[in-house]
Amino acid sequence: TNELSISLVGARKASDYGVTVSRALSSAMASVGFTIVSGGALGIDSAAHRGALDENGKTICVLGCGLGTKYLMDNEDLRRQIAKSGAIVTEFPPFTPASRTTFPLRNRIISGLSLGTIIVEAGERSGSLITARLAGEQGRDVFAVPGDLARSSFLGTNELIRNGAKAVFSP
Questions:
Q1: CA 131, CA 75: separation in Å to the nearest integer?
Q2: What 3-state DSSP class applies to 116?
Q3: Hey, which of 88, 110, 114, 148 has its CA 20 to 30 A from 66?
């Protein structure tokens, strides 16, 4: 990646607010030269990749499975677009299926490729919180988008802020 890379991750079943914020943040950051790193999942990840693509920016998709795996076919077109202006990467051999153990392994690469990680929307047991923890362990900055106090899908992000993550109010 270039010197300016940031990861955006969050809920697969994201709120409209989370998707809008993710796309807007990544679009704004891509427009000034940031490479956007995410995991290619539905919801926040897809919005982050799309925001970078909106600005003809670079984006890196880190897969939690091997290349050639029939995983998340709804996002096949998005992955093709990413491959044209960025990269699709994985540490897994071709055709390795996605599983509960491959995603936490993938998350350390997402955070490791980035100067910082932004958690856009995460419940209290979200895998995105693993990425936040790994980013901190790797000496990376951890950011979180404040969310609706009444929605369980923001319990994790709000807790990250309470515990010292930098709150994100704009790119």
A1: 21
A2: strand
A3: 114
Sequence letter at residue 127: G
| Cβ atoms of residues 48 and 8 within 8 Å | yes
User: Looking at this protein, which amino acid is placed at residue 126?
Assistant: S
Amino acid at 55: E
* Cα separation values, 13 from 18, 21, 34, 87, 170, Å: 10, 14, 26, 24, 23
d(CA 42, CA 132): 19
On whether the pTM is more than 0.85, the answer is: yes
Q: Tokens 């997402």 belong to which residue?
A: 110
Whether the Cβ atoms of residue 165 and residue 171 lie closer than 8 Å to each other: no
Would you call 2 exposed, middle or buried from its count of C-beta atoms within 10 A (0-12, 13-18, 19+)?
exposed
* 118 beta partners: 8, 143
The residue assigned the tokens 């995410």 is 38
Collapsed DSSP state (helix, strand, coil) of residue 27:
helix
**Residue-wise burial string across 45-66, b where 16 or more C-beta atoms lie within 10 A, e elsewhere:** bbbbbbbbbebebbbbbbbbbb
